[in-house]
Every structure is written in C-alpha cells, then in structure tokens.
C-alpha cells in the first residue's frame, strides 16, 4: 500500500498528512509535486490543506489546473481513493470531483477551533471502522468552508448517503449553534457516489495525537488503510 | 481587443462579504442603501487578430471555465 500527498505552491498541511500516514497508519507515503502526472503505484492520494496558489480567484480554483489534477481525475475514475482535506476539499469541488462549492464563512471570520462532527455514514471507505453517529472532535481552520449546493444536488447527496460528516454539539445533536461556517445542513464532509472520493473541511491530520487534544482523526486514516487492504484481497 | 468580464454571485446565494460592506455603508450614513453584493471584474487582453464573434466566444469560454464557478456564480462578457 502506498499513499501520495499532493503538494501545490501554498499547501501547508502536506507535512502533517505525511506524518500521520507514516507514523500513525504505518504505511509508505510520498510527497507528489503538483507538476507530476504519474500516479501509478499509489493506492490513495491525499489533497492536503493550505492556501494553494494563495487562494487567488477562489479557494482551490487555480490548483485544479495543475498538471497533476488530470491524473487525479483518472485515478479517481479507476476507483482509487482521493481524500481532500480543507483546501483539498475546495480543490476537489472546483475540479468537479465532488459536487457543490465552498464559500466564505457566513460569519466572515476565519474559524480555527475544535468542532464536533457526527459520522453520518459509517459505510464509506473512510468511516468503515467508525460507529455511525459517533461524535468526533476534530479542528477546523478555514475562512471558506461554507458548503453550498442547489436543492437537487442536496437531495441526491442525502438520498445516496453522500453526507459523511455533519457539525454537531458534543451530544451529537446537529444544531445551528454548532455550525461554524453556515454550511448547508451543517455539512462538514461529503463523498462522491462511488464513495472513493471524500472531501472534508475539518483537519483529521491535526487530531491524531493526545498532545493535540484529540486522536479521533486516526480512525479516519486507519479506516482508509483498511479499505485499501480490503481492495487488495 | 479587450474583454471585460463581470462575475457575480447567483441571486440565490448569500453574500456575507456584501452584507458586511452594506453594514459599513450604513455606518457611513447611507441608511437608505438597500443591499450590496460583491462581485469580480476582469480585463483580458485578447489576441488582436480575433473577429468579434471569436473574441466573444473565447472570453465566454475563459469566463465559464476559469473565472466563474457555475455552482455559485453568473458571468457576463463585454468585448471592447
């Protein structure tokens, strides 16, 4: 099994993702520069957080034209795993690999704190080791995390179980007060129809050590590794 | 030949930045201003050899594929 972590100019959570895969998942991992186009040999690609291209134009809008992104599309079309975190989620939406868009937070502030997430679908490759409805404590750090989509897209996300994480309170109740950014229906993370592409605004790679206040993020990365193993059998 | 491209949020999309600007406008004393919506404006120097139809088509493609996100934004193009 091998992971790749994409690196765009302006990525800044690439080393965190690399660290978690190598130390807490115990799997080989490479950095993949955005000009690289060969993704053969990888089982999962992590599109990390940061400010690719300085968030110019729109967050994630310019990264989608990097040469590696065509390869990421082909990679995803083969059923391999693509995991976008924060700016990575924004990039995957801009690239059309996930539906909807991420806009400026409704409160306008950059929000940087731990939030509670309810696992809405425990049957994705990213959550198969996590009990559904469990509440995870994972930090957010973004100014553009306000998930927007039209009614038809929202209905199909709901019907197909593509809403994977919702912002909630510590008891798991999805409330307006627990929504840090104004996202539609408290959406924090979604997957594609085939479930191999996931995007989420919170940072599970920053929640893998007790020292950092939570290690709930490990379960997401370990679920992904188990899913890669299951595919290989 | 220059293309002017205007990108604005769809009417159905909330604009928190526009709201904040509106609030500042009110604080400045313009209480009767109803609403402010923030958009983007681009000037693109096109290939001077293009016909006006080609220029329009080129600018629209650039607007559609790069400058605007069709999920949340509309655009309009003026060729000068």
Task: Give a structural overview.
- Chain A is an alpha/beta fold and 233 residues long.
- Chain A contains 5 helices and 11 strands.
- Chain A has a single domain, classed as Rossmann fold.
- Helix content of chain A is 24%, strand content 24%.
- Chain A has a 9-stranded mixed beta sheet with strand order 2-1-3-4-11-10-9-6-7, with helices on both faces. A two-stranded antiparallel sheet of chain A has the order 5-8.
- In chain A, helix 1 packs across helix 5.
- By secondary structure, chain B is of the alpha+beta class.
- The longest helix of chain B is centred in the C-terminal third of the chain and has 16 residues.
- Classes of the chains: A alpha/beta (233), B alpha+beta (80).
- Chains A and B meet through loops of A and helix 1 of B.
State the main characteristics:
heterodimer; A: Rossmann fold; two-stranded antiparallel ribbon; 5 helices; globular; B: 80 residues; alpha+beta; Mth169, Chain: A; elongated
Summarize the model shown.
With 233 residues, chain A is α/β, with parallel strands linked by helices. Chain A contains five helices and eleven strands. Chain A is globular and about 45 Å long.
Kindly estimate the percentage of residues of chain A that lie in beta strands according to DSSP.
15-25%
Strand order of the largest sheet of chain A: 2-1-3-4-11-10-9-6-7
List the domain count of chain A as a whole number: 1
- CATH homologous superfamily placement of chain A: Class I glutamine amidotransferase (GATase) domain
What does the main sheet of chain A amount to?
9 strands, mixed
Oligomer: heterodimer
Helix run count of chain A: 5
CATH topology name of chain B, in short, is Mth169, Chain: A
The Cα radius of gyration of chain A reads 16 Å
- CATH level-four homologous superfamily name of chain B: Phosphoribosylformylglycinamidine synthase subunit PurS
Show unreliable segments of chain A.
none
Q: Would you tell me the structural class of the helices and strands of chain B?
A: alpha+beta
Instruction: Kindly state the number of beta strands of chain B.
Output: 3
In total, how many beta strands of chain A?
Answer: 11
* pLDDT < 50 stretches of chain B: none
Give the termini distance of chain A in whole angstroms: 12 Å
Q: Main β-sheet of chain B: number of strands, strand sense, barrel status?
A: 3 strands, antiparallel
């Amino acid at each position: 099994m091998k992971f790749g972590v994409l690196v765009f100019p302006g990525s800044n959570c690439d080393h965190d993702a690399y660290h978690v895969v190598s130390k807490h998942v115990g799997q080989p991992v490479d950095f993949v520069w955005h000009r690289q186009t060969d993704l053969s040999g990888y089982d999962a690609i992590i599109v990390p957080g940061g400010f690719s291209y300085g968030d110019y134009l729109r967050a994630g809008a310019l990264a989608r034209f990097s040469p590696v992104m065509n390869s990421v599309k082909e990679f995803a079309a083969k059923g391999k795993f693509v995991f976008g975190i924060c700016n990575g989620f924004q990039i995957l939406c801009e690239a059309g690999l996930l539906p909807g868009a991420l806009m400026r937070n409704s409160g306008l502030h950059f929000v940087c704190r731990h939030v509670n997430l309810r696992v809405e679908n425990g049957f994705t490759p990213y959550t198969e080791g996590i009990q559904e409805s469990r509440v995870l404590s994972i930090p957010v750090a973004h100014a553009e995390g306000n998930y927007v989509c039209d009614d038809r897209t929202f209905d199909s996300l709901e019907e197909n179980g593509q809403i994977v994480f919702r912002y909630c309170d510590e008891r798991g109740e999805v409330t307006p007060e627990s929504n840090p950014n104004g996202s539609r229906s408290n959406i924090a993370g979604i997957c594609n129809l085939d479930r191999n592409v996931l995007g989420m605004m919170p940072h599970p790679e920053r929640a893998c050590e007790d020292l950092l206040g939570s290690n709930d993020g490990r379960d997401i990365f370990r679920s992904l590794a188990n899913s890669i193993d299951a595919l290989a059998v | 030949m220059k293309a002017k491209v205007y990108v604005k949020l769809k009417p159905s999309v909330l604009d928190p930045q526009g709201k904040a600007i509106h609030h500042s406008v009110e604080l400045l004393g313009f209480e009767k201003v109803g609403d402010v919506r923030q958009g983007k404006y681009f000037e693109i120097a096109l290939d001077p050899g293009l016909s006006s139809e080609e220029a329009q088509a080129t600018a629209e493609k650039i607007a559609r594929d790069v400058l605007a996100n069709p999920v949340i934004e509309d655009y309009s193009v003026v060729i000068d």
